[in-house]
Each structure stands twice: as structure tokens, then as C-alpha cells.
What does this fold into?
Amino acid sequence: MTVCITKIGIAEVRAERDPAVLVTLGLGSCVGVCLYDRSKKIIGMAHIMLPSSIEIKNNSNKAKFADTAIEMLIDEMLELGANRSLITAKIAGGAQMFNFKSANDLMRIGERNIEAVKRELKRHRVKIVAQDVGGNYGRTIEFYSENGMLSVKTIGHGIRVI
Amino acid sequence: MNYENMSSMQMDVLKELGNIGAGNAVTALSKMMGKKVTMEVPRVHVLEFTKASEILGGAEAEVTGIYFRMEGDISGNIMFLLPVDSSRALLNMIMGGLMDTGEFGEMDLSALEEVGNILAGSYISSLSTMTGMDIKISVPALAMDMAGAVLSVPIIQFGRMGDSVLLIETHFFEGNTHVKGNFLLIPDVESFANLMKKLGVS
It folds into this structure.
């Protein structure tokens, strides 16, 4: 059986049935949300850019924002037959790539994205089972439907599997 | 206002701005090094942000990003982006050393920051002269990492106003050395209309 590897770009949301691998290359201040239903082996990934669609006027692209993208992703997984109560989450990203002395809100965007993602997952009663967030470096993530493993690769900060 | 529904007139103005800005930046670099630096006519791209990193060799390609905050009559951000091999070429140009593969040291990073500072500074001063606006830039911040990750910061800021980014691609040469650099100009949402108005294309 061939495994379909799908790249998830910035502000994209995608759910797949087993066998599938979802990949995001070079995740920086954005947050990769990886959802998994172990019983059906259905996986989903969202590449989230901004914390909230309510703060922004131009909010037609629902996949950009933590509040709307997570809802969208859960709905897509349910359509594929996932069981809502069995969905768990792994999250990665939310780095602060540049170190400015005056840390205004725009510079703290990674941290704000992490907070928003955690809040939204909690609102949907999805438990976070593993995370690799923060820091000041980029990450490439690969999420496997076979076992729900998430591999996190970096430049100069090693490889982890969570 | 966003880049997708910009008129061709506004686009031409931004291209010209990119051209003049990059021209001044290269002149400044040339003066600093005491060597002749030439450049190609910059290419201005408006890209969907998912495609922005392809210009830099893909989301996982290692790049240097030097980032500045603009304040004053317009506010926003400026980023100067170099692929890692161009970063080495640029350091070799300035320091006259031979750096092929080794790790970048503190000194190298600080030299790159300084070059970024000169380039962005001259870019901003041409923008400031053309528009009669008072614009200042912050001290630089540098990151060397995957293109996607480095770009995520300006892309998130663009993302507040639309789904595409404005990228000015410049190539410059000194002798046999070729440096590929990219400027990202990111006015804050409120400043974009103001900038266009000052340039006479509201």
C-alpha cells in the first residue's frame, strides 16, 4: 500500500485516512496542530498563523486562525468518520524567531499562537498529549497516521519524536 | 487595502521604489567595501504567502534573515533575506576572508547584521526622500534558520491584511562573487494607504 505524503502549507488545514503522512516544512512562529483518532487512525493537521479571527478584519480565510482552523479541522476529521471523544492533539512550533529588545505584541506572536491553540483545544475538549513549542528555531514536522507519532526536525537543535 | 487588489499603477510605483531603494543600498555597500558592486534590475514579486519561500529555495533551505522595525510617518517592518551560500559570499566580500563551509561565528553574524543595517538604512532613506516622510528604523535582529520559519514572522504580519506578500528580489555582483538578496517591505495595515497617498497613487 502506498502512503500518501501531503505537505501542509501556511494557513492550510487537512484531514486524512490511514495510511497518510502529513508534513509541514519550516514551521516558525506559526503553530502546527496535529490531531489523531487512534481507533480509526484518522489524522489531521492545521498550520495556524494567527491567534484569533475576531481581532482581524480580513478574516475570510478560516484556516489562518486558531479559533476557526481548529474547528474546521475537527469537522473535517468527523466527516472522515473520526470519533470526537477519541481525538487527541500534539502541537509544535510557536517559536520566537527574532529577539527584539522591545518585545511588543507582534514580536510575541509565537507565544500568543501557542496560548490561543491551547485555549481552543481546551474549548473543544481535545487533550494535548505531547508538545514541542517555543524556543527560537524553526521546525519541520511529520505526522504519521499509522501510530500518531510526530517527528520534529530542526537545524542545529536535533530531531525529536513525540 | 491589500496587495491582491492593488492597481497596476500602484504596483509600478512599488517596483520603482524597490529599484531605487536597492540601487541606493548597493551603492552604500560598494562605498563600504571600496569595491565596485553591480546589480541586476530588481524583480518585484507579489506572491501567495505559501509560495514565498520557494524563491529562497524551499521552506527548509537555510537562510539568513535580518529584521527591522520601521517607525515614524509610516510604521511596519523590513526584512533582508539571504540564502546561506550568499551570506558566506557576502562575508567573503566584506572581510576578504575565505569562508567556505564552516560555522558562522559571533563576528560573522554581527558583520551580516551590520551589512543588513546599511542596506536597509539606505533603502529607507530613499523611501523617506521620495515621500517626504520621516521614517526611522530599529536596530537589526538576525535569525539563521529554515526559510519557512524565518519568513513566518513577516508573513504573519502580512497575513493580517491579506494572503500575499511583496518581495523585491535583487542580485548583486562583485568580481566573480554573486550575492542573491531579497527585501521584504511590510508596511503596517494602517500605513499602506498612507504610503500610496504620499507617492501620489491613492
